[in-house]
Amino acid sequence: MVLGDYRFALVDLETTGGQAGQDQIMEAAVRVLGGEQELEWQSLIDPACAVPSFIQGLTGISSSMLRGKPRFSEIQETLWSYLDGAILVAHNARFDAGFLRANFARYGRDYQPRILCTLKLARALYPDWPRHGLETICERIGFYSEVHHRAMADVDAMKAFLDYARADKGEAVFNFEAGLLLGLPVLPPTISQTDIDAIPLQPGVYRLLGEAGELLYLAGATSLQEQVCSHFENSAGDSKAAKLARRVYAVQWQALAGDLSAALHVNAALRAEKPLLQRRMKAMGKPCCMRFISNDRGELQLRLRSGLPANIAQTTELLALFRDRKHAKTRIAELAKEHDLCLRRLAVLADTESCGCRICTGAANLPSPAEAEAQLVLASNVEFASRVKAAFAGYLYAPWPFTEPALIHEQSQAGCSEWHLIDDWRYYGSFTWDAATGQLCELSDQARPVDVEAIRLRCEQSKELQYEHYRLLRAFRDDLPWLPLSEFAINKAQ
What we know:
Elements: E1 8-15, E2 25-33, E3 39-44, H1 53-59, H2 63-66, H3 72-83, E4 87-90, H4 93-105, E5 115-117, H5 118-125, H6 134-141, H7 151-169, H8 171-182, H9 193-197, E6 204-209, E7 215-221, H10 224-230, H11 240-247, E8 250-255, H12 259-272, E9 288-294, E10 300-306, E11 319-322, H13 325-338, H14 358-361, H15 369-378, H16 381-391, E12 406-411, E13 417-423, E14 426-434, E15 439-442, E16 445-450, H17 452-458, H18 467-475, E17 482-484, H19 485-493
Parallel strand pairs: 1-4, 4-5
Antiparallel strand pairs: 1-2, 2-3, 6-7, 6-8, 9-10, 12-13, 12-17, 13-14, 14-15, 15-16
């Protein structure tokens, strides 16, 4: 049982009001489950103040009943012995936890328990019930008590609900929902540990599916098993992760050769498929290029252009590439601030816009606009241009380093091997090598061999440059072996 190794302290408090900072505890009850034996403790507590009439009517506890009872200072050590190290279980647990935290703090105790709220658990297990108050729950499950709003009576009601829900929903469902609320690592009831153990600790792509087979989420992973498990380990309470975990019915996965392969596959899949519980990929505008030009005075300035030059593969001009125009403007502003570049000098501001650089804001300790202008003139155009190009070095377009298509070889520690076909930073598919036939095979259909000339012809197909592929391939340029197609053919022929 997932929760069997934990101690649970079922707690209920009756208080003189609802504010933990100013009202007092006047009754406490606790029942400890788990461990060697079940323990219980309860006590009336003198709050050292009058009990409001409304509270007396609700609980039946009067000021006279509390006269002569121990103060919290006298019982706090005993109560702590039951609660310390146990999971706090309470109905509307934030209330009880707040009072306990405030009262223990007065005696130097930091009470920060893991909390299981039976109100939230009831809502998760029985969302069709119209109300989830403790009295309503007792009516639903057929648990009757002679008193309500007394500490031990409410503890007994909570235990009755927990026993009912575990029997009614089954151990797997009960543990899953309780585990989610506690932020513990739990698996959906339809997924066993055997299923998880079968997922390899290697790169790949996985899909989380709902009960009807609908796609909820898909992603790539460096370690498939660890990434899948993370969805059920970090999904506490009512978070988005918990909502996803509650709907997962099955996991599909595909082991791949490495991180590049996983990223290429996910990029294509997210464009073709529509996961229900995953943020949609933003509709991309045209890639945007930024040119570095010199004006009549020899000053370096920036110019943005949506789309890419038709001759970008042959260009010798210095260009910076961005995902789209919005991305370009954002990064220009960020990099200019980071490298203290004047946006006015770069001519990327409209007349009504203001620049936040040190010179334009007066932070350069220049006493007048005339002196600021003089400082700009004195600054070397060459030095300024060098700083600008250094600031945007990470976005400069790198010409395709080959005169023909290339195959990138990627292989996992488990021996999964792939060849990714790239030409002019454009991705044309992934293949495996069939040593028996001496041919490449489509990764999506390994029964279909493809010879080198066929994939060379494939690269002659017109294809737009995708910014995501370009950045991804650049990132792996020095990490994986790249072979021009002609060299690949020679090597495999030998």
